[in-house]
Amino acid sequence: MPVRRLPFARRPWVLVNAVLGVAIAGGAMWAYMTFVKPDPSLAAANGGIRTVAVAQGKVTSTVSASGTVQSATTADPAFATNGTVSEVRVKVGDVVAKGAVLAKVDATAAKRQLTAAQADLDAATAALNRAEDAGSDTSDAEAQVTSAELEVEKAQEAVDGTTLKAPIAGTVVAVNGSVGSSSGASSSGGSTSGGPTSGATTSGSTGGSSSSTGGSTSSSAGFIQLADLSKLEVSAAVAETDATKLKAGQTASVSWNALAGATATAKLGSIDPNATTSNNVVTYGVIFTLDDLPDGVRAGQTVNVSVTVGEADNVIYVNPAALTTVGARQTVIAVRNGQQETRSVEIGLTGDQGVEITSGLQVGEQVVLKTSSSGTSGNGGPGGGLPGGGGFPGGGGAPAGGGVRGGGAAPAGGGR
């Protein structure tokens, strides 16, 4: 008589999976009871929430910005007389004294005009003399002499304008023309800008358009560009909220990106009264005057500037991430004996790494740090008992949200 096999005997893996399912279910229940519903007194210690101790020490607030080294005094002299450049006496890198001849244009036409104007003046003067000798009315003759004198002055200025001289002592940083080219003269005759402390725009002796070292650019470039490289400053831009914390005379520290270990002290010379808006971001230009120059410093180098705008010594403070601000009210979540309580606090100086607490907390107390997750609902920690909002990462009783990976009672979510 044939032996009848039971279904489990014909399919032994069903029995094995059943046993595994029971074991996994038991393990999941144990994990839930152990991790998802911890004792409240152990929540902080077990990492359910992130806390930090209230500390005592120094709170410092700074304003930082990146900037560029530039000359405190620059000049862009340009020819006052149009013509063909006949001579360029300097090249980039040359150091020149104030009043040195930089370049010339062909003065032939200008001198011819001066000769003609002088001849007209001589004739007008002679006519005036004849009228005076004759005892007749000299009004018209005097007017002719005055007009002729003005023409001579203009012609002389045109001759003088064929020679370009340095309005300041400095280094030639650009030559914007060559022999045979047009002088590109305009009525402005170039510009100068800057100052050792103000950084404000000033018109030079050559007159014309101005350029600002506080973030604006010159309206035109001269034939030669000069810079006093012995007096350097830093031009930077700060956010509008930071600009309200700054005032002229504040001390700053400067570090160089291209010069390892190079630092210097500086003073805030000026804050641009006009804002600059780019991509809806409002900034204000600032100028820092350098007290000393480290070796290797050159105009155009990038630097980082930091100004200390507030300090508070030996004060109680917390990490800024522990504070919640609603209107004018500040609160923290303090942890006492494993229990969380919302507590109002009063703050003082808001620093870069900490916020001064003037009342509401004591040194050593634990406060909860806010996280990027949505709230503290669940089982005593952000998002749930453990990261992911459930017992384990993934948001369920175990990884991937089920008993084991795959989401079912056994691997791959099925019986086998």
Helix and strand topology:
Elements: H1 7-10, H2 12-36, E1 51-53, E2 55-71, E3 73-77, E4 85-88, E5 95-96, E6 101-105, H3 108-134, H4 139-160, E7 163-165, E8 170-175, E9 190-194, E10 224-227, E11 232-239, H5 240-243, E12 251-256, E13 263-278, E14 281-290, E15 302-318, E16 324-326, E17 329-336, E18 339-350, E19 355-359, E20 366-368
Antiparallel strand pairs: 1-20, 2-11, 2-15, 3-9, 3-10, 4-6, 5-8, 6-7, 8-10, 11-14, 12-13, 12-15, 13-14, 15-19, 16-17, 17-18, 17-20, 18-19
Helix pairs in contact: 3-4
Q: Kindly, what is the distance between the CA atoms of the first and last residues, rounded to a whole number of angstroms? A: 34 Å
Helix-strand sequence? HHEEEEEEHHEEEEEHEEEEEEEEE
Q: Describe the global form.
A: elongated
Q: Structural class, from secondary structure content?
A: alpha+beta
Averaged pLDDT: 78
Tell me the radius of gyration.
Answer: 40 Å
> Could you give the count of β-strands?
20
Biggest β-sheet: strands ordered side by side in the sheet:
2-11-14-13-12-15
Parts with pLDDT < 50 across at least 5 consecutive residues: 6-10, 28-46, 195-219, 373-416
Q: Helical percent range?
A: 10-25%
Helix count? Answer: 5
Beta content comes to 25-35%
Task: Let me know the largest β-sheet.
Answer: 6 strands, antiparallel, barrel
